[in-house]
Design goal:
GO molecular function, one term: acyltransferase activity, transferring groups other than amino-acyl groups
Shape: globular
Order of helices and strands: EEHHHEEEHEEEHEE
Organism: Mageeibacillus indolicus
CATH topology: Aminopeptidase
Distance between the termini: 30 Å
Protein name: N-acetyltransferase domain-containing protein
Radius of gyration: 17 Å
C-alpha cells in the first residue's frame, strides 16, 4: 500500500502504509500544500489541465475526492508520483482523472497505483451491515489546527470511468487491473472526435 493523502471538503485525510518515512510526511501535511501538489501533477499530466481554483471548487463538493500517492526516492525523500480524482455516489465510484508523473511512466507505476486505489474498496454486498471503513488522520487547511479522526466509508459495488479510444497505454492499464469495456460514446471528444470507451470494474459479483 502506498502512502497517500485523500482531499475532500478542505481537509487532508492521511492514509499511511506504516513505513518509517510516513511520519515525516504526515508532519508536513496540510490542505494547501496538498492542493498545490495536486495542481502541479494535474498540470504535468494533462494538456487540458484543470487549474488550481477549479480543483479546489470541485473538492468542495461532498462527493468529490482526490487521492495523491507518494513514493520514496533514492535519497529517501517522499515525492508525489500520481493521483486520482473521483466521485463517490452511493455505492458507485466514478473515476474522473488518473495521472502519473511523467518521470514515473513506463515503469509500471500506473498499474500499481491504480491497483492500490481499487484495492481499498470493500468487496461486500450492499445488504450486509458490516461494511468496513478506514480511519484516517485529518489535517485541516491550517497546519496549526489540531488533528481529528475521520472515518471514510470505503464500500462501493463498482468503479466506472471513460477513456479515449486511442489512448492505448491507459486502456492497457485499466484492463490489467480488471476494468472491462461496457460501451462507447461515438465522437465524444470535441478536439479529436474520438469515441469515449466506457469501462467498469465490479467490486463484488451482482446476483
Amino acid at each position: 500500500m502506498f502512502n497517500s493523502v485523500l482531499l475532500n471538503g478542505r481537509s487532508c485525510l492521511w492514509r499511511s502504509n506504516g513505513g518509517p518515512e510516513s511520519s515525516n510526511l504526515k508532519k508536513s501535511l496540510n490542505y494547501d500544500e496538498s492542493l498545490n501538489q495536486l495542481a502541479e501533477l494535474e498540470r504535468l499530466c494533462f494538456s487540458d489541465f484543470w487549474p488550481k481554483n477549479e480543483l479546489a471548487a470541485m473538492l468542495d463538493l461532498p462527493y468529490s475526492f482526490a487521492q495523491i500517492f507518494y513514493a520514496s526516492t533514492s535519497g529517501e525523500k517522499i515525492v508525489p508520483i500520481g493521483y486520482v480524482i473521483y466521485w463517490q455516489v452511493v455505492d458507485e465510484v466514478q473515476l474522473h482523472r488518473f495521472g502519473i508523473h511523467p518521470e514515473r511512466r513506463g515503469c509500471g507505476s500506473g498499474k500499481v497505483i491504480l491497483a492500490d486505489f481499487c484495492g481499498q474498496w470493500c468487496e461486500i454486498s450492499p445488504g450486509k451491515s458490516d461494511a468496513s471503513s478506514i480511519s484516517l488522520q485529518t489535517s485541516t487547511r491550517s497546519s496549526s489546527q489540531s488533528e481529528a479522526n475521520y472515518t471514510f466509508n470505503n464500500f462501493c459495488s463498482k468503479i466506472t470511468l471513460e477513456v479515449r479510444e486511442n489512448n492505448a497505454p491507459a486502456l492497457a492499464v485499466y484492463r490489467a487491473v480488471g476494468f472491462e469495456e461496457v460501451g462507447r460514446r461515438p465522437n465524444y471528444y470535441h478536439d479529436t472526435h474520438e469515441a469515449a470507451v466506457l469501462m467498469d470494474k465490479c467490486i463484488f459479483p451482482h446476483e
